[in-house]
Amino acid sequence: MDDRRPGEVPLLLAMTFRAMTDHLHARLVELGREPLRPAHGYVFRYLADHPGATVVDLAARLDVTKQSASKTVTELADWGYLERRSHPTDGRAQILVLTERGREYLHLADELWAESEKQWAAVIGADRLDAVHADLRAYLDHVYGDHRINIRPVW
Amino acid sequence: MDDRRPGEVPLLLAMTFRAMTDHLHARLVELGREPLRPAHGYVFRYLADHPGATVVDLAARLDVTKQSASKTVTELADWGYLERRSHPTDGRAQILVLTERGREYLHLADELWAESEKQWAAVIGADRLDAVHADLRAYLDHVYGDHRINIRPVW
DNA sequence: TCTGACTAGTCAGCCCAGTTGACTATCTGC
DNA sequence: GCAGATAGTCAACTGGGCTGACTAGTCAGA
Fold it and tell me: Are A153 and B16 in contact (CB under 8 A)?
């Protein structure tokens, strides 16, 4: 059963993530929602967790240039998912704030990701899924220690 | 401990894969090797597992157009990792064959991916890693059933 | 056996999300 | 108050994907 080829696990991680991404995308289409890309989802999540974040903060977290982050922000702002507000103390900076629409979308996305989790749990059992969750966390904590980390996969 | 936010697991999968990809990339640089992209690795793996494959086969597996697959193949052929040979029976087609250099690179990549696995195993234990492996496989088998699947993540 | 539909692969041109580089406006430490 | 750092934007480029149009070869049927 466990004829595990050395080096196979990372590939399986990627394939699994791809499968879940496909599911999310299909569900969004099914619901008639704009299928934002995962990169957008990361923006939402980051802003929800870090109120007062700026474009530069976001760029650092996503590990892209500030120009690229700025472009994404412009796009999401045009679509009404977030707003730029003037920074209270720094005249150069703008803080990024999710709109109600943005928070609602984030909530929906979480629910749809959770569908994939439930699907997985149905196959392997909820306790095993909890174990996987803990194991992933343990690995990331070990690799990155305290300081936070790159969210976006790179190809 | 298991205050698992619903929908968090897919993100953790992506972050873990990203961490392992970063590790691979860093090791390749360290060894003075050309840091081919993961997409190239998928080509190598597919060709190693499917001798006699053509560009069209590859395109189907990677879920890209044949034009795109052809471009990647040209690149890898220019770098000496694979060769195009005339198809024995079909005058239109070419079969793709890994060179010794290509097989050597694939072997190295597997070793480097395995380093990440070992690192993970050191944190959570080998038995837990085996469990994760089995759980990933179980999910993919459930989602895709028999017919094989998309390897390449999509953004 | 010829012909029409299909298939393998390439060429050319476009698109999009990222990049680098140059710039303005503002902030901060000496 | 000035020099250097920082937030953000504009412009031009790149790379890896795409569509569309094409050539060359295959194959099935009348």
Answer: no
